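In the design runs reported in the main text, the only information available to the sequence generator was the tokenized backbone. The following block is the verbatim input for one such run; it is reproduced so that readers can re-run the procedure and compare outputs position by position.
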């Protein structure tokens, strides 16, 4: 490292980072100020091409695997040293914000640009990752490509996932021209860091610049089918009804009650709901919905599930409807690597940023990579905790602080060569 550089004062170029975020936001603009850059769309392809051009301009080489994951490499001084990875995702929700995922990718690019500006060399190579289909909004499940990388899914299974129009992941990846030649999962890592907006209100409420992510939340998604009997709403006597909608209502309250029993850091809600036949004057004969239980503690998840499975069928039986359940999504709560977490905390302290330990309330690619290699996350606040919404907002100062911490944590891990 250049001896004239005071390490404690090293900062990324906040204005350059913000300009990059705004330039990427022009690709796949939403209708209300955010973005619609869903995975494997033409907009996704355009965002990928822009990112590649920026990486190559920064002197990096690009590799792409068979799931479309992008890996931009900055060489290290030791050819045998495993790379230190950083990054996130560029795909968005249909009505997504400009920062979810994107900050982690472009913050990593800004960190590399800063290393170049300062003439810094590292023993370990440094790689920026753009993981394919983190959001899972077009092709379920979320974190699909990092899941294949980590061995959670097979590539054939992932290629067969279809969107609402019946188009397959594999066909669309080929269509947009981003099927790479690398075997997915073949890359090895020394460590990985992911910068991300919090997607929750805690950091802003606590007036903290940085969230040091110690754990991620595990989750269980339970698809429930409540079956009753369709009948006319006007002519069916109340005592004779088998209303599947009441089953949904009872279970909605039950899920809330169970989650509240396990505070803090346990959550539960019902999201997706389909009502059949969904007519104004027909009592619902079937309701299909998904419960989302989450906690960073496995025993809490287990306890919530046990209580749900004990009580929910009884609530349905009392009103003459039946309940069937199926687990349709799950992963156990990750505890991030202590050395990586310490690197993040030390970086925040060195830079003088206020910080606090935090649990990630959402799933991230880092959660899958953590099963294989030392991993941690850095979070910055977002206004009102709002995310997955075009009104998602952060400040340039929050973005810069997160990228500063990312820079220092990665340099400490990749070992700066004096």
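Verbatim output:
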């Amino acid at each position: 490292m250049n001896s004239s550089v005071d390490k404690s004062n090293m900062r990324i170029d906040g204005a350059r980072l913000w300009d990059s975020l705004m330039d990427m936001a022009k690709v796949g603009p939403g209708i209300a100020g955010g973005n619609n850059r869903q995975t494997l769309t033409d907009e996704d392809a355009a965002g990928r091409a822009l990112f590649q051009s920026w990486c190559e301009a920064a002197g990096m080489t690009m590799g792409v695997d068979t799931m479309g994951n992008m890996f931009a490499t900055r060489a290290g001084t030791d050819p045998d040293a495993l790379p230190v990875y950083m990054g996130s995702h560029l795909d968005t929700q249909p009505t997504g914000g400009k920062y979810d995922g994107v900050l982690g990718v472009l913050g990593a690019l800004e960190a590399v640009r800063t290393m170049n500006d300062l003439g810094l060399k590292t023993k370990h190579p440094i790689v920026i990752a753009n993981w394919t289909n983190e959001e899972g909004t077009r092709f379920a499940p979320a974190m699909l490509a990092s899941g294949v990388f980590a061995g959670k899914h097979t590539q054939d299974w992932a290629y067969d996932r279809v969107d609402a129009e019946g188009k397959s992941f594999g066909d669309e990846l080929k269509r947009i021209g981003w099927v790479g030649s690398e075997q997915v999962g073949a890359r090895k890592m020394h460590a990985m860091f992911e910068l991300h907006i919090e997607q929750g209100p805690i950091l802003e409420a606590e007036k903290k610049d940085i969230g040091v992510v110690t754990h991620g939340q595990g989750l269980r998604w339970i698809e429930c089918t409540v079956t009753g009997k369709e009948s006319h709403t006007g002519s069916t006597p109340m005592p004779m009804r088998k209303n599947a909608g009441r089953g949904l209502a009872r279970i909605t309250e039950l899920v809330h009650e169970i989650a509240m029993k396990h505070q803090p850091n346990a959550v539960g809600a019902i999201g997706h709901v389909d009502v059949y036949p969904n007519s104004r004057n027909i009592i619902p004969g079937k309701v299909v919905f998904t419960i989302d239980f989450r906690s960073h503690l496995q025993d809490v998840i287990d306890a919530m599930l046990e209580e749900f499975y004990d009580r929910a069928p009884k609530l349905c039986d009392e009103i003459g409807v039946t309940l069937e359940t199926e687990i349709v999504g799950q992963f156990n709560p990750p505890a991030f690597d202590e050395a990586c977490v310490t690197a993040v905390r030390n970086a925040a302290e060195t830079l003088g940023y206020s910080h606090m330990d935090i649990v990630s309330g959402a799933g991230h690619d880092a959660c899958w990579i953590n099963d294989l290699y030392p991993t941690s996350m850095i979070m910055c606040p977002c206004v009102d905790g709002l995310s997955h919404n075009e009104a998602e907002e952060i400040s340039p100062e929050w973005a810069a602080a997160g990228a500063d911490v990312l820079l220092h944590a990665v340099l400490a891990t990749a070992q700066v060569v004096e």
